[in-house]
Amino acid sequence: MxxxxxxxxxxxxxxxxxxxxxxxxxxxxxxxxxxxxxxxERPDGKYIGVTNYMIQEPGRTNPYLSYxxxxxxxxxxKDSVIGFLAYWDPAIANQIKLIPYxxx
Length: 104
Hints:
With 104 residues, the protein is α+β, with helices and mostly antiparallel strands. It has one domain. Helix content is 16%, strand content 29%. The chain has a four-stranded antiparallel β-sheet with strand order 1-2-3-5, with helices on one face. Strands 4-6 form a two-stranded antiparallel ribbon. Strand 1 (19-26) and strand 2 (35-41) form a beta hairpin. The chain starts with 5 loop residues before the first helix and ends with a strand. The model has no long low-confidence stretch (mean pLDDT 93).
């Protein structure tokens, strides 16, 4: 049975509600931590993939975190992994900062 998340939005003090539909772990070359991706479903039926780490390569001012709204679980998962890998370079792994994402 599908949970009607919109009903919770009418409750006092509830601003947003998401349903966790899955969590995956990836072992990335030379990465000291596992990359975890949690995919949540929004009340409108769209999905967002969220990683457990933001990534900051040398010379970048702010860390990067993919947080795109997608039409499927697969697309949300894929977007999060591709976003992380776009900034990951195993050759300079010791220079890349992994910052735990509090929203995970």
